[in-house]
Design brief:
By secondary structure, the protein is mostly helical. The chain has 2 domains: 36 residues, no CATH class; 46 residues. Helix content is 58%, strand content 0%. The protein is built from 5 helices and no strands. α2 runs antiparallel to α3 and α2 packs across α5.
């Protein structure tokens, strides 16, 4: 086995994973996450950045979006959370 440092999920024999679909399916099955999608992981990343008040331009850059309007989808979710929080008081 060739030691490779810095890999979160090394492939067989320590070789980097090179097929995201096959690799994700294998990782998901090993972790017993039946209905967890790669997109869900990406969405959670973006949403958590917004929830922690990271500015929208930084979120856009980290997620690799070219258009800021795509990133603004995460803002509406944050607005929904605020609305739900206020509803708890009524």
């Amino acid at each position: 086995m060739v030691p490779i440092s810095g890999l979160v999920f090394p492939g067989k024999n320590g070789v980097p994973l090179d097929n995201i679909k096959r690799s994700w399916t294998t990782l998901r099955e090993k972790a017993k996450l039946e209905h967890f999608t790669f997109h869900g992981l990406r969405h959670t990343f973006g949403q958590r950045l917004i929830d922690r008040r990271v500015d929208i331009l930084t979120v856009r850059d980290l997620m690799g979006y070219a258009d800021i309007s795509t990133t603004q989808i995460y803002l509406s979710t944050a607005t929904d959370k605020k609305r739900e929080a206020v509803q708890c008081l009524i």
